Amino acid sequence: GWAGEGPGAGGKNRRVCHAAARLEMGSLWEEFNRLGTEMIVTKAGRRMFPTFQVKLSGLDPLADYVLLMDFIPLDDKRYRYAFHSSSWLAAGRAEPAAPGRVHFHPDSPAKGAQWMRQIVSFDKLKLTNNLLDDNGHVRTPLWGDGEDTMPEGVLPSPLSHPQIILNSMHRYQPRFHVVFVDPRRDSERFAHQNFKSFSFPETQFMAVTAYQNHRITQLKIASNPFAKGFRDGDPEP
Amino acid sequence: GWAGEGPGAGGKNRRVCHAAARLEMGSLWEEFNRLGTEMIVTKAGRRMFPTFQVKLSGLDPLADYVLLMDFIPLDDKRYRYAFHSSSWLAAGRAEPAAPGRVHFHPDSPAKGAQWMRQIVSFDKLKLTNNLLDDNGHVRTPLWGDGEDTMPEGVLPSPLSHPQIILNSMHRYQPRFHVVFVDPRRDSERFAHQNFKSFSFPETQFMAVTAYQNHRITQLKIASNPFAKGFRDGDPEP
DNA sequence: CCCTTTTCACCTAGGTGGTAAGAT
DNA sequence: ATCTTACCACCTAGGTGAAAAGGG
């Protein structure tokens, strides 16, 4: 699918206002989404599968950009899985939100030309339920959802890539952000104009510590190469 | 050992003039150097062992730096190994030098604080004797199982961190360079002031396609974890 | 003869879900 | 009951030198 873009482009810097992002592996994401995607969270951190990957266009080839992701609660509910009906049921209000974090793409910062040359893959991003994470922590400011503020410390590019902390049995929407690295001295004052955000609804998921829906398990085994050991026959190579 | 510094520091930018680099694993390097270090070069590219690693100090924590390496012929000779005397003999003049290349550290550019925080390791650097370094045919990574190919260009551009081309049976001196990323518009005109170079004599080596000195082979097997399969007993951990 | 290339068994390193035990 | 953790076999991915084969 094509970019579900963030808040209105009004007043955006020209270096980001034409930026576009196409989600890769869209048909796989949709196959999972139809069943209700689940993502494992562990203490040590677990990769997402499918991996969040985008193809970028509309960047200034010569300008510097930082790419990052964060994860937004889709509602304030806690869920449980009803095995008898094979469906998710709301089960009370959400637990206190985990400390918001962002994950910078490890290649950040880089030129627009470099980002657009190839598919950008967030395959090193890991999800955890461990609140005590010694990695550098960068607070997620609630920019984008109505608010037009930039996270502090984005421009200095902390170059830390902490794990993302989520609550199990809660639903999340991954978000992807393109941030123009403004060389102006006073760039903080233009920060709200220098980024553009993308949300792909087909990438939303339920965080779990163990898979609940057996059809999700089977689709993971069938499509994730690292789970090949659990495949039975081979219907199609 | 401490930094063998490059040409005189006269006229260097203050962002690099105090930079210092300490070679890590110095005793291992010296142990190899006493025997006459050999490094394998292959068509596909081979890592160095020991890995070139340095601890940096004296950088401006808030300034941006690029770190890179290159390899300088130590003389204009070609060598051959005399097994009867277990020694290297000069055997004519050097072959035409391979196209000079540099290897940028993959984390470049980054702040001085980031570089100084931990040991900088060039463990992704690879040596090759292949003049047609078409690193372009990149194997598909995950979910490239069988025919299910990933769109090309998912991996980092091979052009940004090319393999180092060397002539087998020739001697080389690795060099390490710290380059201050000058934000000034006219920065090209100050380029000669904005870097500082380091050469550690104990890291010089002979490029080979197969080990010649059997004691070098044994020391590689004893000290490189990836060669553990060739170890016999275990005298000392 | 000297050197290079290819293939291979054997490693390191780390990503999977299954399973059983543990926690609440 | 429901959810979490620890450990495991089984994978992917790729870094070793040995040995045999190839090339001048």
From TrEMBL, chains A, B:
SUPFAM superfamilies reported in the protein's UniProt record: p53-like transcription factors (SSF49417)
Source taxon at top rank: Eukaryota
Ranges where the T-box domain occurs: 23-232
Family annotation (PROSITE patterns): TBOX_1 (PS01283), TBOX_2 (PS01264), TBOX_3 (PS50252)
Entry keyword set: DNA-binding, Nucleus, Transcription, Transcription regulation
One Gene Ontology MF term: RNA polymerase II cis-regulatory region sequence-specific DNA binding
UniProt main location, coarse: nucleus
An example Gene Ontology CC term for this record: chromatin
GO biological process: cell fate specification; positive regulation of DNA-templated transcription
Entry-linked InterPro entries: p53-like_TF_DNA-bd_sf (IPR008967), T-box_DNA-bd (IPR046360), T-box_sf (IPR036960), TF_T-box (IPR001699), TF_T-box_CS (IPR018186)
One Pfam family, short name: T-box
Subcellular location: Nucleus
SMART domains named in the record: TBOX
Designated name of the protein: TBX10 factor
